[in-house]
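Is NAI placement plausible here? Inputs below.
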Amino acid sequence: MKSYWQNYIAGDWVDGGAGRIDVENPGTGKVCAEHALADAGDVDRAVGAARDFADANIWTDMRPMARGRIIQDMGRWFEAHIEEIATVLCTEQGKAMWEARGEVGNAAKYFDYFGAQAALIEGTSIPLGAGYVDFTAREPYGVSAQIIPWNFPLEIASRSIACGFATGNAVIVKTSELTPCASEFFVRAAKDCGVPKGALSVFTGLGPDAGAARARHPGVDQIVFTGSVATGSAIAAAAANNIVPCVLELGGKSAAVVHEDADLESFEGDIRRGIFVNSGQICSALSRVVVHENVHDELVERIADVAMGVKMSIGAEATEPLGAMGPMISAGQRDRAVGMVAEAERQGARVVAGGRAGNLPGFFMEPTVLVDVKADMAIAQEEVFGPVVSVLKYRDEAEAVEIANGTQYGLVAGVFTRDLDRATQTARALKAGQVFVNEWFAGGVETPFGGYGKSGYGREKGQEALLNYVQTKNIAIRVR
Ligand code: NAI
Ligand code: MG
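Reply from A.M.:
I modeled the complex. Tokens:
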């Protein structure tokens, strides 16, 4: 991995107005690179270039199929460079190499999927009787500003870059200061695939500095943010001052309701993927299991076995699919998660697997299972964002739904049962933007994703996501 990475602003590779930032490899705790750090002046230049690009109608004068082909080419570019990109991603982010490869593949899918839809963003024709012709057009906002977190730096940025381009917007991306390097590949892909100059700027900067400067910048027309509730709220407040719409994806405390008749053996795979992939640093993680009392003990035994079977390993060494789990992103996030588990124990929860920091040099935490968790404990209410699953017991279905719905969040939820009627009834009762039945993370780039409650608003993925990036113009014509 090269030792110094620059920002890409207004069509040029540039140093940062705020100097440089060290990037750490979470698997070793050691610095792996330096990255240019943007300041408010850099933000201003990026927004200015995007504004000029949008005002010149460069994307919108192009035939949408041609624009879509460029976007799809970016996906193919990612597929062709999968090893190179995944290596950088797993070095700076810590995730296992098999996960990093998966993330690059998923990033490619977003370009493929949304590129294919560039020509499908159609208006309607509205009958007004004799003397009028009326139609609507879906026009881009112009400048889409995207603030990206560190847990899936490529997947999350690719879904909004692809959507932004498909709808004809200029896009400026502020990457997380913890994982800025791999996003350079978006720029390289864009240049190689013929994205016109000015359509994309990618830079990193500190949240409260460059991030905030971007959120309040009057030249931004639309904001897409994924991250914490507190930061999302600050961004939405800044956007409100400029009357600018936001898409907010703010995490969750998602519950799997496991009914008495569920296939408990196959649920082991859901736990493995749902909470121990990416060390549990997933907004839609399976962080609570709400299980019927009659199968509670058997399920706990199975879940604990899964947790104890997951090895921890430095990202680059973990190449086997569903093999080892990598570290967390930082010592701070790891210590916070370990502290939340200790606090839950003080309140009466019991650790049946893991619970401590990993006995390795990087920022590892053991895969952790907590039982005897009560719905009002902090561990059952707040996002841990680590490899920690809480098990809660229920007696009847009403209680299961009450527990599952009993947090401020509502991103995703799950129902596990062999009975389709029961699955449908529970799914209808759950307050979440997406409900998985019998497979956690069922769905994909094609299915709308976003939260109820404090999990945010707006939907990403799926055709619905495109609507965040366009405004409707109605053209009403008097014909004489
Ligand atoms: P954060 O929400 O503060 O950071 C996410 C992004 O927002 C980063 O790019 C950061 O630079 C930027 N940012 C921070 N402050 C900003 C501001 N005032 N204005 C504009 N941009 C700003 O999240 P953080 O502090 O890294 O993690 C804290 C918690 O947030 C985690 O423990 C987790 O619970 C949650 N989180 C949820 C994510 C999700 O996927 N929904 C992703 C990352 C964090
Ligand atoms: Mg923060």
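Short version: Residues 147-149, 151, 174, 176-177, 207-208, 211-212, 215, 226-228, 231, 234-235, 249-251, 283, 333, 383, 385 surround NAI (ligand 1) (CB under 6 Å).
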